[in-house]
Amino acid sequence: MKKISNYENKKILVLGLAKSGFSAAKLLHDLGALVTVNDGKKFEDNPQAQDLLSLGIKVITGSHPIELLDEDFSLVVKNPGIAYEHLLIQKAQSKHIPVITEVELAYQISEAAIIGITGTNGKTTTTTMIEHILNKKEGNGQALLSGNIGFPASTVAQKASKDDCLVMELSSFQLMGTYEFHPHIAVITNIYEAHLDYHGTREAYIKAKWKIQQNMTENDYLVINFNEEEWQNLAKQTKATVLPFSTKEKVQGAYLENGHLYYKGEFILSANELGVPGKHNIENALAAIAVAKIQEVDNETIAKALREFSGVKHRTQYIGTINDVKFYNDSKATNILATQMALGGFDPKHLILLAGGLDRGNEFDDLIPDIKYLKAIYLFGETKYKLQRVAKEAGIPVIQLTENVESGLYQAFEISQPGDTILLSPANASWDQYPNFEVRGDRFIEAFNQLKNNK
Predict the structure, then answer these.
(1) pTM of structure
(2) For every residue of 131-174, which 3-state class applies, written as one string?
(3) CA-to-CA distance for 167 and 140, rounded, in angstroms?
(4) Between 279-294 and 299-308, two packed helices, what is the crossing angle to 10 degrees?
(5) Which of 297, 372, 407, 424 shows a CA-CA span of 20 to 30 A to 305?
(6) Sign of the CA dihedral running 216, 222, 225, 230
(7) CA–CA separation, 343 vs 370, rounded Å?
(8) Cα 213 to chain center, whole Å?
(9) pLDDT digits (tens, 9 = 90+) for 15-60
(10) SS3 category, 272
(11) How far is residue 215's CA from residue 208's CA, in Å, rounded to a whole number?
């Protein structure tokens, strides 16, 4: 960890706790800053705030008083989920107080080089694939997972040495709060329309993602998806050395040709050897291969690691088999596109889908081509009636409404036959019935284990 002094005796407001805010507050305190933490959760229900208070950090909880910014703060560190329309953020900006996210702090103190991964879908899988491959390489240093994947970047950066690298998943929310952030390698998995409730427009969303490369030079590498012309045009706007990947054409990087994955003409492995199913995972693997080659990992090691890679929890995660029926947990599929990508990895005639969740006002007609050959579908949550309509239009022979993920699993298994697959891929957020997609996926796994134990 670099010992920086630019925050000594500076008054800094950390707005919003959760993992990243908690980590940022502790780090800034250790760096000599005069930290004030403001979190909406009440103090008695807020163990993180209680811990910070015990360290001597000023804590204000239960509300966000606008008069907080009457103090002379030199910096605001914002939780990524807090919108820029928040009154405190607007007031900070009107007073020309910089507003950053915790990943900016991580960059400032990190001795390790950063590999940053962003995109609409595939971030978590690609990030984990890269970490898995790089840690198979012999030599000094480790690849350390960090960022939006659940490990606060500023915590991991404190532990990383100059021989390590931070493999950092980055959301658009995090990237908006960066200024100096400078990864050595940046990956953009894809860009689709998402998070418009936060960003307002698709253009603003893309602009946030594109910040990942804003400080890169020709000595850095941008690994970018060349499947669409839009991304190819974006690639012309960076100073970084561009390394493309594609499943549609041969490029000067990583690509798919005749069912095989190559890097600049070198055969790596066949697509059917990958440890995770789905066309989207071929794209993820190509991005990971490009990063591994930059990091001088040999082809045999890359291929072995990708064969062994069994996926990320809650992302097309194979959880087991009962009576020759396979079960996959894709609870992280919180939008239509993610579910479409998951469906592409299975034979629909032997696939039973569990879907549904929070109603955000959208319809699901885009799913019809992807679900029309399904064996059955079980629907839950606020959107079950919307999904029931498109399932009928798709002509799915078995369409059932069910109470939740757990009941859906049991009912799906009752009609399943050997050779079938039961897939949880909701195409919706979880908040109508579950605190988050992780809990939803865990309940699916628990239901599977209970069913298996009773067989």
Answers:
(1) 0.80
(2) HHHHCCCCCCCCEEEEECCCECHHHHHHHCCCCCEEEEECCHHH
(3) 16
(4) 140
(5) 424
(6) positive
(7) 7
(8) 18
(9) 999 899 999 999 999 999 999 999 999 999 999 999 999 999 999 9
(10) helix
(11) 14
Widest distance between CA atoms in the chain:
67
CA–CA distance, 297 with 308 (Å, rounded to integer):
16
Tell me how far apart the alpha carbons of residues 385 and 218 are, in angstroms, rounded to a whole number: 52
What single letter denotes the amino acid at residue 9? N
- Quote the tokens at residue 388: 């029931």
Q: What is the pLDDT of residues 173-200, one digit of tens each?
A: 899 999 999 999 999 998 876 556 666 6
Length of the chain: 455
CA-CA distance, 250 to 263, in Å (whole number)? 9
Looking at residue 392, what DSSP letter applies?
H
Contact 316, 277 (CB under 8 A): yes
- Six-digit token pair at 283? 């794209």
- Are the CB atoms for 154 and 106 separated by under 8 Å? yes
User: What amino acid is encoded at 404 in this protein?
Assistant: N
Exposure of 5 in the CB half-sphere (CA atoms within 13 A): 0
Which tokens belong to 72? 């002379």
